[in-house]
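Hi, here's the filled form for the chain we discussed.

Project: internal
Contact: R.S.
Residues: 233
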Amino acid sequence: MHLRRKQFYFVLLAVLLACARVGFAAEGDEKDRVLRRLDAAAARFHTTSADFEFDSVTTDPIPDKDVQKGKVYYARNGKSFQMAAHIETENGRPDEKIYGIFAGVVKLFEKQTNQVTIFSKMGQFESWFMLGFGASGKELEEKWEITYLGSEMLDGIKTEKLELVARDPAVKKNLPKVTVWMDAERGVSLKQVFDEGPGQYRVCVYFNIKVNDSLPSDAFVFKTDKQTVPINR
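And the returned structure, exactly as it came back:
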């Protein structure tokens, strides 16, 4: 009797392990399929514009939520990449700011204080800024460990949900995990959730997305003057 029971458990274990291997293989195949679609989309990618809402949420120690709305622009030409987020309102009040990455340098322009902050040591975070807009599957694989979480419909569009963990320890320290909902056909994100450590996360939602249309002439320009204060960090 005991022998038969042991044999049954061994058979059951073998079946479960076989199912697990099949499941992992299927997930790997599906992830590879999505990444190769992103390779194809990246080859066609030149520009993108979109409206956005960025929600920065704190759950601990004091619950808080900061909501920014505006328009974002992306442009790519070979390895040259630019991104600029034009913030128009913060928590429902006008508050004009522009931040982005230009020639590998991260900059923030704040109109109300008329100052430009230059983050010269943040070039390593370029993969963060281009995340989901123009990055190929191969580029994502170079910068991130990727887990495929299945497909999901957002605003009537089929998206592929990916969980990303940075390979660079410096990025991972500040950004433990990112979840993105990708329109793999166009190579753009409809939604991103940035895990920023215990008690903090950021939700980015994009809509009215336009791919490969002409961008405004001031998409990547700060309107500074002689009184603009530069700050280097």
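Let me know if anything looks off before we file it.
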